[in-house]
Amino acid sequence: MIRLAEFDDMQVQDLLRIHLHGMHKNSPIEHSFALDLTALQQPEISFFTLWEQNELLACGAIQELSSTHAELKSMRTHPKHLRKGAATEMLKHLLMIAQQRKYQKLSLETGTHLSFEPAICLYKKFGFIKGASFSEYQESDFNQFYHLDLSTQ
């Protein structure tokens, strides 16, 4: 089941710690744009969690950049649940939210380290195309950008 995150849940906090540690391990801190617990609690961000009974499998967020453009953030599968389809299920949910909100474009920023390759493959499978930086991001050797045109869907 996917639901809005409860920020006081210890499993949610633990997965966010795992996420931040992974981002900082594979990208220099000044090129890591992962959001912490406080940053995810902004009104323009909807942060979701995927559960199987009482166990947290994955999380993901969508941030409104404008009335027509949103960004995917904080996509992470718990290490115990990799390759079980949790990321796919979360991405499908975030795409559904984007379509319900009538966004025309969905973008994301991700790293260039080999550890990001499984996520990049998933995004490409859903039609995301590598492109230019967006919002306030600056291009570097440590990040890359993907976009999905929702205006034709």
Protein architecture, described:
With 153 residues, this protein is of the alpha+beta class. The protein has one domain: Gcn5-related N-acetyltransferase (GNAT) (Aminopeptidase), CATH 3.40.630.30. 27% of the residues lie in helices and 31% in strands. It is built from 3 helices and 7 strands, in the order E-H-E-E-E-H-E-H-E-E. A 7-stranded mixed β-sheet has the order 1-2-3-4-5-7-6, with helices on both faces. The longest helix is centred in the N-terminal third of the chain and has 17 residues. It is globular, with a radius of gyration of 14 Å. The two termini are 25 Å apart. The relative contact order is 0.16. The model has no long low-confidence stretch (mean pLDDT 92).
Tell me the layout of helices and strands.
Elements (H helix, E strand, L loop, with lengths): L1 E3 L5 H17 L18 E8 L2 E10 L4 E9 L8 H15 L4 E7 L5 H9 L3 E3 L11 E7 L4
Parallel strand pairs: 4-5
Antiparallel strand pairs: 1-2, 2-3, 3-4, 5-7, 6-7
What CATH architecture label applies?
A: 3-Layer(aba) Sandwich
Distance between the termini: 25 Å
Helix content: 25-40%
User: What is the H/E string?
Assistant: EHEEEHEHEE
Q: How many domain units?
A: 1
Q: Count all strands and give the number.
A: 7
Instruction: Kindly report the name of the CATH homologous superfamily.
Output: Gcn5-related N-acetyltransferase (GNAT)
Structural class assignment: alpha+beta
Largest sheet: 7 strands, mixed
Oligomer: single chain
Strand content: 25-35%
Mean pLDDT, rounded to whole units? Answer: 92
Number of helices: 3
Give the overall silhouette. globular
* Rg for CA atoms: 14 Å
CATH topology title: Aminopeptidase
